[in-house]
Amino acid sequence: MASSYVDSNPSLSFDFINKHPLLQKLITWYQQVGTENKDNENKHGFLKHFIDTIANNFTKSSNNLPYSDTIKNFALSLYILGGKLTYEFIRLNLPGSLPSLTMLNTLISNLNSKISEAEFRFDQLQKHFDDYNVQYAFGSEDTTGIIKKIKYDSTTNTFNGFPTPPDHGVPIKEYYQTNSFDTLKLGFNSIDKSSLLNVHMIQPVQSINQSIIPSPFLLSAYGIDNTATANDILQRWWYIFNQCLQRNIRIIGFSTDADAKYLRAMRLMSDPTHLVTKWRNRLLSSTAELCLGNQFILISHLHDIINNETYSKLDRGLTKSDINPKDRQNFSSCLKLTSADLFKILNDDVNTRGTLIYLQMLKMIILAYVEKKTTIAERK
User: Fold this and answer.
1) Phi and psi of 372, rounded to 5°?
2) What is the structure's pLDDT at 270?
3) Residues 354/296, Cβ–Cβ less than 8 Å
4) Does the pLDDT value for residue 3 go beyond 60?
5) Three-state SS annotation for the chain
6) pLDDT tens-digit readout, 257-280
7) Between the CA of residue 3 and those of 31, 112, 130, what are the distances in Å?
C-alpha cells in the first residue's frame, strides 16, 4: 500500500521531505512512537489519533467529514468545559480537527442528556450511583446570576426564563405553557424574568474500597427570583432526601453558601437538640393526647413511676425536674428518659407499652442525629 501511494505521488521524494521540516519531525515522532512499549504508545494514542484525523480530512470535502468516536467524545468534552466560543476558536484554527456545531448538537441530542428546566433527574441519578456502586451522598444547592432571557423549548412547549413557582418548595416543571398569544404577552408584561439560576448537585461519597472519586451529578436547574423562604428550601431538601431514599440513595447532608435563607434552613435541619427536646415536650404537654393503637402515651406513667416507692432514684434514674414541662430545653432529661432502666420498668407494665415505644423512638432520634459515635450505616 505504501509503495502504491508513493507511485501515485511521485513528487513525494526525500528532497521534498527535506524541504519541509514539519514532515521530518512528524516522521521522526511516528517512528519513535512505533518503537515504544505499549504503555507509552497508549499515552500518545489520542495525539496520534488527533493528528491522523486532521491529516485525513485535509484532502476531503468540508461537508460531512468523518470523525471517530474518540474525536467525538473529545469534542463534547471540549464544548462542555470550554464553551461555544472556545470550541469554535479551536475548530476554525485547526481545520478538519473537530466536528461542526451542527454535528455536535446532533451528538448531544442523541445522547438523550438534555435537561429540562425544573426537572429533577432522580432516575438518571440512580443509574449514576449504580455505575459507581455507591449509596451515600451529599446534596448541594446554590444560585448564580444569569442574563434575563426568555427562550422557547419546542420539545416541551414551554417558555423558560420566568421564575419557576414552587409547590411546597419544589419547583413546578413546565409551568409556563400557553397556546394563547395574549396570555404570553400578559406574562411578558407582568412577570419578571429570572435573575438567578438555582442549581442542585449531588456528590456521591467514595467507598472505602474505591480508588476513584465518583463524579458529581447535576440533579436539577431552574430560574428563580430570590423570593424563596427558608421553609421552601427545607421542604425542597426533604423532597430530595425522600426521592433519593426510595432509590436506595442516602443523602447524609446538604451544603450551600452563606445566604441568609439557606443558613436558616440549615439551622432548622441541623439542630438535632431542638428536635429531641421537641419530641420530649410533646409527651409533657398537658393538652396533647397521644396514643399508639389502643395504647396511650401519657406523662402520668412517668409520674407514677417517680411516686412509686418501689423504685428508688437509682432504679428509675428520673426526678420530677426531668419531666417539668416548663423547662423545654432540658436535653439531659431526654437522656434520662431513654435509659435502659426506665425502659425495663415501662416494659414490665402492659399499660405503659405505648409510652415505652414513644420513648424508644426518642432514643432512636438521639442515636441518629446527636450521638457522634453512630456510624453512617447505623444512622440509616
Assistant:
1) -75, -25
2) 61
3) yes
4) no
5) CHHHHHHHCCCCCHHHHHCCHHHHHHHHHHHHHHHCCHHHHHHCHHHHHHHHHHHHHHCCCCCCCCCCHHHHHHHHHHHHHHHHHHHHHHHHHCCCCCCCHHHHHHHHHHCCCCCCCCCCCHHHHHHHHHHHCCCEEEEEEEEEECCCCCEEECCCCEEECCCCCEECCEECCCCCCCCCHHHHHHHHHHCCCCCEEEEEEEEECCCCCCCCCCCCEEEEEEEECCCCCHHHHHHHHHHHHHHHHHCCCEEEEEECCCCHHHHHHHHHHCCHHHHHHHHHHHHHCCCCCEEECCEEECCHHHHHHHHCCCCCHHHHCCCHHHHCCCCCCCHHHHHHHCCHHHHHHHHHCHHHHHHHHHHHHHHHHHHHHCCCCCCHHHHC
6) 877 777 777 766 666 777 788 888
7) 18, 46, 52
Q: What is the pLDDT of residue 35?
A: 73
C-alpha span between 105 and 187 (Å, rounded): 30
Q: How far apart are CA 50 and CA 121, in angstroms?
A: 34
Domains of the chain: which residue ranges?
A: 2-110, 122-268, 272-379
Return the HEC string of 179-211: CCHHHHHHHHHHCCCCCEEEEEEEEECCCCCCC
Task: Give residue 43's identity as a one-letter amino acid code.
Answer: K
Parallel, antiparallel, or unpaired: how do β-strands 250-255 and 217-224 relate? Answer: unpaired
Read off the C-alpha cell for 297.
Answer: 402515651
> Which cell goes with 54?
486532521
The one-letter code for the residue type at 267 is R
Examine the pLDDT at 5 and tell me if it is beyond 70: no
What cell numbers appear for 338 in the block?
431513654
pLDDT value at 211 more than 90: no
Quick: pLDDT tens for 128-170.
999 999 999 999 999 988 989 888 888 888 999 899 999 999 9
Write down the mean pLDDT value for the chain. Answer: 84
Q: State pLDDT tens for residues 37-63.
A: 665 556 777 888 888 888 888 877 777
> Tens of pLDDT along 15-31?
777 777 777 777 777 77
Tell me the torsion sign for CA atoms 19, 23, 29, 32. negative
Joined together, the cell numbers standing for residue 114 give: 438534555
Ramachandran angles phi, psi of 144, nearest 5°: -140, 145
Per the rule left: phi > 0, alpha: psi between -120 and 50, beta: everything else, 218 is beta
